[in-house]
Every structure is written in C-alpha cells, then in structure tokens.
Predict the structure.
Amino acid sequence: MIDGTAVDTRPTKIMYVAEATAHGGRDGYVTSQDGQLELKVAMPPALGGDGNGTNPEQLFAAGYSACFHNALVMVGRRSGFDLSGSTVAAKVGIGPNKRRGYGLAVALSVSLPVVDSDVAAKLVDEAHDVCPYSNATRGNIEVTILLG
C-alpha cells in the first residue's frame, strides 16, 4: 500500500508462461511441459512422510530465492552496484492456519558483502517491490527479510 491505497501489481502483459503437472500429489512426481523438470515429490518427515524426494515448499523456496536474487541484482545494477558474490537463501515454513487449512511463511536471508548496510537495506526494499514472488505473496504470506 502507498498512502493507504492498494498498489496493483498484476502484469499488464504476459511475457512467459510456465507449465507444470503434478502426478500423485505430495507422494508422486512433477513434470514441466518442456521436459526441463521431472522430480519425485514426497512428504517431508516433519509432516509424516519418508522425505524420499523434494517437496512443494523446497520448490517454492528455490523459486522465490532465485527470483528475489535476480530482482536484487537488477535494482543493484540500475543503481550502479555490482552485486557479485551476493546470495539470497529462502526458508519456507508450512503449518495449520485458523481456517482449518494450511499456510506458509517465508524468511529470506540476503547477503550483500560488497555494499554497506544502509545501501543494502535500500536495495533489498527496492527488490521486494520489483520481485514477482514478493508481489504475489504480499498481504497473504508473512515474508521476513534478514540482511546478513
């Protein structure tokens, strides 16, 4: 929100569409339409599974960290900073919510060793405004960003 007004973050033009299919839910496999992705999925031990495969939370963490890092590098470049050596790690938690369903929480750990903390904070805020994952989760998933 800016000045109490909701910001519209919907795309004005679709430039790419990713397509994936799940077979067997959390105990099966996922594939992408282009054949680049074919992964076994399994419930993690913390949720009663054997952990013998990846899970949707790991895939979401991988996607969010990659997307946010790309947004960070882009805003850094626009501001004249080379962010080589920077990293973004994502932790995605899952648990029951108050509506008899489940919810997610995300923690992004950002490392920007080449800039001072004030510049790093500014770049992270800008990346959070630009990143499609941040825009998609804003207001419905708690996202914490830690600078380290």
In short: The chain has a mean pLDDT of 95.
